[in-house]
Specification:
The chain has helices spanning 2-17, 29-61, 73-91, 103-110, 115-136, 146-150, 152-155, 157-173, 175-194; strands at residues 66-67, 141-142. By secondary structure, it is mainly α. The chain has a two-stranded antiparallel ribbon with strand order 1-2. The longest helix has 33 residues, at 29-61. It is globular.
């Protein structure tokens, strides 16, 4: 079990450094669940707790970070169900070449096979989608300080790491696995915010 966990963490790290569009293919449900659990744990520990630690340090020593969203039953429902589906459809669904709703119209319109370019620039494509995902989450905070924008890359660190681990899960396991990981991650932090 520890060896499998270590191998899965190495695989996630390799993906973060150089994303590839390799899906798992035929594998047991147990192996999929182990990989999923590892990705979720990675997302929580590295993205969540490390990111929140950095946000705490910025808030404590540099400037006050003001959250734009107040936690309520409605916002919790959005964070746990609607946001994961919408954000995964927008930022992770297009990360596979086949059945890609962004590439297909360009391919048909230009009558050209874009797959060689897709493979070549795939890491850049992943990083762009991850960056857009993180930038979207800057709106979770209300702050007009110039320091906020200077340090915003650190403020959205949980979303940068999360975007990479969610991309890994989406590509290796499939779209709905990514939605589930996103929903569970949000659920954990909504529950922590309620305590």
């Amino acid at each position: 079990m520890v060896t499998g966990l270590r191998d899965n963490i190495r695989e996630i790290n390799r993906f973060i450094l150089k994303p590839t569009e390799d899906c798992l293919g035929q594998t047991s449900l147990e192996d999929k669940l182990t990989l999923f659990a590892t990705a979720l744990l990675y997302h929580i520990c590295i993205g969540g707790f490390l990111g929140l630690g950095i946000i705490y340090l910025i808030d404590r020593f540099l400037f006050n970070i003001q959250h734009a969203v107040e936690l309520s039953a409605h916002t919790a429902l959005v964070a746990i169900i609607l946001a994961p589906i919408a954000e995964e459809a927008l930022f992770r669904l297009p990360l596979t070449y086949h059945h890609n709703y962004l590439v297909r119209p360009i391919k048909v319109l230009l009558k050209v096979d874009l797959q060689p370019y897709w493979r070549r620039y795939f890491p850049t494509i992943v990083y762009v989608f991850v960056s857009l995902f993180a930038l979207l989450h800057v709106s979770n905070y209300q702050n007009s300080s110039i320091l906020f924008y200077v340090f915003s890359v650190f403020v959205v660190l949980p979303q940068l790491v999360g975007g990479l681990t969610l991309s890994f899960t989406r590509i290796r396991l499939g779209f709905w696995w990514g939605v589930l990981q996103h929903a569970l991650y949000n659920l954990i932090f909504v529950l922590l915010a309620m305590v």
